[in-house]
Amino acid sequence: MAKFHPEIDLLTEYSAGTLPLAQAACVSAHLNYCAQCHRSIEQLEDVGAALFDGLQAEAVGEAQLDAVLARLDDAPPLRYAKPEHREVGRTPGILQRLMSGQYTDLAWKKVTKSLSISYLKTGDPDFEFALYHIKAGGRIPEHTHHGSEMTLILEGGFSDADGSYHQGDFLFRQPSDVHAPTALQSEDCICLAVLDAPLKFTGWKYRWMNPFLRLRAG
Amino acid sequence: MVESNEGNGWSGGSGRRTDEWSECLTLIAANEDRAAFTRLFRHFAPLIKAFALSGSNMSATHADELVQETLLKVWQKAGAFNPEKAAASTWVYTIARNCRTDMFRRLQKFDTPLSADDVTPEQESEEPFSQLQSRRRRERVREMMKELPPDQAQILAKVYMEGKSHAEAAGELDLPLGTVKSRVRLALQKLQIQVESYSYG
Q1: Which of A47, A100, B198, B199 could form a disulfide with A7 if both were Cys (CB 3.0 to 4.6 A apart)?
Q2: Cα-based angle B43, B44, B48 (whole degrees, multiple of 5)
Q3: Do B116 and A17 touch (CB under 8 A)?
Q4: Where are the domains of chain B?
Q5: Minimal CA–CA distance to A25: which of A89, A97, A86?
């Protein structure tokens, strides 16, 4: 069960539909692992619905009703199979949609000996949406951010100076937090990172790479 | 002109009305019942139009389009509605919310493989929470909503009805972002929304 969750501001914006697409996709993937946040979202949607029910009604012409009735035949009610039970640990549906395959089928770009990155296209022009693969025991060079970094652990786990994180854990780092995550020794780690500005390596050994780490949004 | 049965004001405390809309959805799913659909339309179309026009950044033409799109989707998806796991009004609201998001992205020529339904699907309770329990919770939210201080109610309306991000709300109200966030938090606390406290950030 996930231990680290999006804070209430993010859940609120997610439930109101105002979170940017890439960030909303990351929160949605967290819900795949987290029954508590799932419940919170239901309650927040009830808040939206209560406001919705209380709106001052706007008159709608009878012609509108006729127009919709005329379109019903072209759009028959869909048949739904019994919904499959959500399995914890399964790859989040939203990522399956974006990847069309398994993690292993993706094009991985090797950045360091233990870190590879695969970029996914969400269409959000302001955020990079990428999967990071860190080899067991491998370390991401110490880095900081110009912007925010949302991270969700999909497989394995990693630790940094502040703690250790496992499948389903959700982290939201603010600009200028410096950290150097290390994958757990036991298995490789795959995580999703959503950034609005490129990473910036701080150690001398990797600083030369910074100019190559431009943001790949879209 | 079609008027909402309820007009403004909160729809009763008994939850009976909610059940009426659940029944309509069930009838649509079972028999493609047009009379049930018409009842739903007369109740929800004026609310959806109000939702579209709140924040007034949508033209009247687009508002009418949103009404049609949302109700067509309600018709098509009625079979996915499970009265034991969701409330009809919440379900319709989330469909309207998603249709609006998709419409805005379409108007902005956003090129994305994801629809709002992929990103914010209609939620279904995991556990078979008793219907009674969920209904009580919703009634409590509606009751407490009336007790909120105006500044908190105003922010919630901006966020949920006008579809403004916290940052946009702060800009419009000329308030610091931190103030907007704390008003939202205070409001949600009063409504007794439960959120996991162990979070990072």
Answers
A1: B199
A2: 145
A3: yes
A4: 20-126, 147-201
A5: A97
Stated as kind and residue range, the H or E segment containing A1 is none
**Residue B80 near residue B19 (C-beta atoms within 8 A):** no
- In angstroms, the CA A25 to CA B153 distance is 28
The pTM for the full model equals: 0.91
Phi then psi for A167, rounded to 5 degrees?
-45, 130
CB B78 within 8 A of CB B25: yes
Distances in Å between the Cα of A183 and the Cα atoms of A165, A188, A203 are: 9, 7, 18
**Under CATH, which number does the domain A100-212 receive?**
2.60.120.10
Whether domain B20-126 has CATH 3.60.20.10: no
Domain positions in chain A: 8-95, 100-212
Which conformational region is residue A108 in: left (phi greater than 0), alpha (psi within -120 to 50 degrees), or beta? beta
Quote ipTM for the complex.
Answer: 0.90
Q: Does B29 touch chain A (CB under 8 A)?
A: yes
Mutation site, A7, A42, A73, A79, interface B, largest B CB count within 10 A: A42
Please check whether the domain covering A8-95 is classified as CATH 1.10.10: yes
* A63 in contact with chain B, both atoms CB, cutoff 8 A: no
Please give the structure tokens belonging to residue A59.
Answer: 């008159």
Query: Which range, of A25-29, A207-211, B114-118, B157-161, averages the lowest pLDDT?
Result: A207-211
The whole-number average pLDDT for the span B28-37 is 95
